[in-house]
Amino acid sequence: MIQAQNLGLSLSGKAILRDLSFTLTPGTVTAVLGANGAGKSSLLTLLGGDRPPTSGTITWFEQPLSAWSAQDLACHRALVPQATHLAFPFTVEEVVALGRLPHTSSALDRMALAAVCRQLHLEALWNRPYASLSGGEQQRVQFARALAQLWYPPGEAPPRVLLLDEATAALDLKHQIAILTAARDLAVQEKVTVVAILHDLTLAARVADAALLLHRGHLLRAGPIGAVIDAAALSEAYDTPVSVLRHPDTGRLLVSAA
């Protein structure tokens, strides 16, 4: 379980996040929602331990996040950013293998790479230069690298956190759903805590269990996804009229500008 209490962040004297308190539960997908500049990516840097908060505390699985060593964090937390640029002529396999650097067993590394390759259907890309891929293909490879970083043998289930910072922004609809479904499977089947910044609110309603809705650095609403995907709250957060409907056949929430 991850708990944030009265979390705040200021940069160069400007308040970016103010007094955020919430709990993230293992085995769930939490969507982080909000307009551009609301503080979503800044929040992810705090949750991942990449930057200390200016105020408040973060507890990871009953320990202060500050007490986790960089090595331990690297074995239990993976981040997929919106885009990653590499200056070296790595193959896809070599990029995915970067996720195994914090680990120490070459035998398990081989098992992890084989499992991730199969899971994300990367066989046709495996030996290609990473730089030759499209932006969407590169993003799929980065997701594979994160899965390899969090891979443990069947039966082992240490606490793990997967952070997705607009990781599906460059993908077509098919691969957006495929990656978020894989993230959801990781949460449900292996009790990983998944936190994903998403701009597609309908997609967020489809894959997330819960959501944090940010507005100008404040936590406007938090809770089950159905309670956060609310027309009034979203209209306030995005400063534009929003409609929330239900699909007539599936019952899924559909979000659009009013």
UniProtKB/TrEMBL annotation:
Domain annotation ABC transporter: ranges: 2-241
Entry keywords, A to Z: ATP-binding, Nucleotide-binding, Translocase, Transport
Keyword S-adenosyl-L-methionine (UniProt): no
Keyword flag Nucleotide-binding: yes
Pfam families referenced in this protein's UniProt entry, alphabetically: ABC_tran
InterPro entries in UniProt: AAA+_ATPase, ABC_transporter-like_ATP-bd, ABC_transporter-like_CS, P-loop_NTPase
PROSITE patterns linked to this entry: ABC_TRANSPORTER_1, ABC_TRANSPORTER_2
UniProt-recorded Gene Ontology molecular function terms: ATP binding; ATP hydrolysis activity
Domain of life: Bacteria
Coiled coil: none
NCBIfam families in alphabetical order: PRK13548.1
Function noted in UniProt: Part of the ABC transporter complex HmuTUV involved in hemin import. Responsible for energy coupling to the transport system.
Name of protein: ABC transporter domain-containing protein
Organism whose genome encodes this protein: Elstera litoralis
